[in-house]
Amino acid sequence: MLKIIVATTTLIPSALLIKPKILHQTLTSYAFILALFSLTLLKQNTYLKPMSNMYLNSDPISAPLLTLSYWLLPLMMIASQYAMRTEPVQRQRAFLMTAALLQTTISLTFMATNLTLMYIMFEATLIPTLILITRWGQQSERLTAGTYFIMYTLTTSMPLLMAVLFLNNMSYSPTPFFTPTQSTDPWTNLLLWLACLTAFLAKMPIYGLHLWLPKAHVEAPIAGSMVLAAILLKLGGYGIIRMMQIMPTMKTDMLMPLLILSLWGAVLANLTCLQQTDLKSLIAYSSISHMGLVMAAITIQTPWALAGAMALMIAHGFTSSTMFCLANTTYERTHTRILMLTRGFHNILPMMTAWWLTANLMNIAFPPSMNFTGELLIMSSLFNWCPGTMILLGLSMLITATYSLHMFLSTQAGKLSPNLSTNPTHTREHLLMTMHIAPLLLISMKPELVL
């Protein structure tokens, strides 16, 4: 654990010391080496591994998410190269330093074995993300987006802090993740659950606490959008799975309102996607609907549902990141994200159209992709728990297919806008898409790595 954490932390001073000419190349190759190191986390035998470290450890829940975050670090750097090339060297260094700091805090959150450390690191991820959104964001509203982001996350994480302190007082030591809390008064239990879940629900985000997400996505630079969609939303799901291990046992009926809200929220978010005119905003709302399914699966707490939630979180991490990269390649050429103005691209960039089609099929959860595995597990476990959920799930799937095809057709088909001068696609962009989609297809051939 420590060797990866130390190596990630040393990326921060490296961003300040490397010569300007080789800054991007060197840091990206370092990040790729770290990504390869992190692949070893997927194949550890938890039964044979001793608890070598009382603060940091990884298990089958955190390892896939850790590997995903390390895999996306070099891709963030590659995706930002075009935007960064016109910036002064100091700002380039600051950007790469912020990305490395964000990666360090994210990996510490996933590796933490006690609640207090996880809470501190969970909050620490806010600072680099906020810097990314407000310093390298694209439009004048980026400060508003940053304010939304901070207000939502901080307001909801105050109750979590209270709950962490309460749990620590009950156990007279920092609560580790494998000692379930003894049950107390039923009302205390309910308040504990609410306090712990709210912070993670706002981070996922569940429909109703989601207003910060489209704003943050639209204003963030490409690296910010990638890390927000692919990793920071998963911190919410991961936190809830972790919390359920140590919380006093609760009947699923008590969590029924949450389950209904997450399924209904998924349908509403999908409907919102249909009326979006902004490409980035559309992809952001699609993330909310997928996270609704993950939340519904985690709530019923069966092994199948949890496996489905993990699979969908990993698959969605790759898919949404790919879609943001594609939206960014279009934006770099047209300088607009309005769907009406970015049509007809398949006439001039046919290879990009192939990537768009692949990403949209993944988003619809087309077999044999990992998204399909995740959604199938979630659907079967929800149907087994209550057949009535099928109505909302079916509706959600139907609308997902509709808006994905609408997005594909409105960006690729039709006549080109006049006065559009575009550059051909670069090898860098094709490499970026390959590095997103290849792991997704490879994992779908061996899904037990992440289940």
Automatic annotation (TrEMBL):
<feature type="transmembrane region" description="Helical">
    <location>
        <begin position="220"/>
        <end position="242"/>
    </location>
</feature>
<feature type="domain" description="NADH:ubiquinone oxidoreductase chain 4 N-terminal">
    <location>
        <begin position="1"/>
        <end position="109"/>
    </location>
</feature>
<keyword id="KW-0813">Transport</keyword>
<dbReference type="GO" id="GO:0008137">
    <property type="term" value="F:NADH dehydrogenase (ubiquinone) activity"/>
</dbReference>
<comment type="similarity">
    <text>Belongs to the complex I subunit 4 family.</text>
</comment>
<protein>
    <recommendedName>
        <fullName>NADH-ubiquinone oxidoreductase chain 4</fullName>
        <ecNumber>7.1.1.2</ecNumber>
    </recommendedName>
</protein>
<feature type="transmembrane region" description="Helical">
    <location>
        <begin position="254"/>
        <end position="273"/>
    </location>
</feature>
<dbReference type="InterPro" id="IPR003918">
    <property type="entry name" value="NADH_UbQ_OxRdtase"/>
</dbReference>
<dbReference type="GO" id="GO:0031966">
    <property type="term" value="C:mitochondrial membrane"/>
</dbReference>
<feature type="transmembrane region" description="Helical">
    <location>
        <begin position="348"/>
        <end position="370"/>
    </location>
</feature>
<feature type="transmembrane region" description="Helical">
    <location>
        <begin position="22"/>
        <end position="41"/>
    </location>
</feature>
<comment type="function">
    <text>Core subunit of the mitochondrial membrane respiratory chain NADH dehydrogenase (Complex I) which catalyzes electron transfer from NADH through the respiratory chain, using ubiquinone as an electron acceptor. Essential for the catalytic activity and assembly of complex I.</text>
</comment>
<dbReference type="GO" id="GO:0015990">
    <property type="term" value="P:electron transport coupled proton transport"/>
</dbReference>
<feature type="transmembrane region" description="Helical">
    <location>
        <begin position="61"/>
        <end position="82"/>
    </location>
</feature>
<keyword id="KW-0520">NAD</keyword>
<keyword id="KW-0679">Respiratory chain</keyword>
<dbReference type="Pfam" id="PF01059">
    <property type="entry name" value="Oxidored_q5_N"/>
</dbReference>
<feature type="transmembrane region" description="Helical">
    <location>
        <begin position="118"/>
        <end position="137"/>
    </location>
</feature>
<keyword id="KW-0830">Ubiquinone</keyword>
<comment type="function">
    <text>Core subunit of the mitochondrial membrane respiratory chain NADH dehydrogenase (Complex I) that is believed to belong to the minimal assembly required for catalysis. Complex I functions in the transfer of electrons from NADH to the respiratory chain. The immediate electron acceptor for the enzyme is believed to be ubiquinone.</text>
</comment>
<dbReference type="InterPro" id="IPR000260">
    <property type="entry name" value="NADH4_N"/>
</dbReference>
<keyword id="KW-0812">Transmembrane</keyword>
<feature type="transmembrane region" description="Helical">
    <location>
        <begin position="382"/>
        <end position="405"/>
    </location>
</feature>
<keyword id="KW-0472">Membrane</keyword>
<keyword id="KW-1133">Transmembrane helix</keyword>
<keyword id="KW-1278">Translocase</keyword>
<dbReference type="InterPro" id="IPR010227">
    <property type="entry name" value="NADH_Q_OxRdtase_chainM/4"/>
</dbReference>
<feature type="domain" description="NADH:quinone oxidoreductase/Mrp antiporter transmembrane">
    <location>
        <begin position="112"/>
        <end position="398"/>
    </location>
</feature>
<feature type="transmembrane region" description="Helical">
    <location>
        <begin position="149"/>
        <end position="170"/>
    </location>
</feature>
<dbReference type="GO" id="GO:0042773">
    <property type="term" value="P:ATP synthesis coupled electron transport"/>
</dbReference>
<keyword id="KW-0496">Mitochondrion</keyword>
<dbReference type="GO" id="GO:0048039">
    <property type="term" value="F:ubiquinone binding"/>
</dbReference>
<keyword id="KW-0249">Electron transport</keyword>
<dbReference type="InterPro" id="IPR001750">
    <property type="entry name" value="ND/Mrp_TM"/>
</dbReference>
<feature type="transmembrane region" description="Helical">
    <location>
        <begin position="190"/>
        <end position="213"/>
    </location>
</feature>
<dbReference type="Pfam" id="PF00361">
    <property type="entry name" value="Proton_antipo_M"/>
</dbReference>
<dbReference type="GO" id="GO:0003954">
    <property type="term" value="F:NADH dehydrogenase activity"/>
</dbReference>
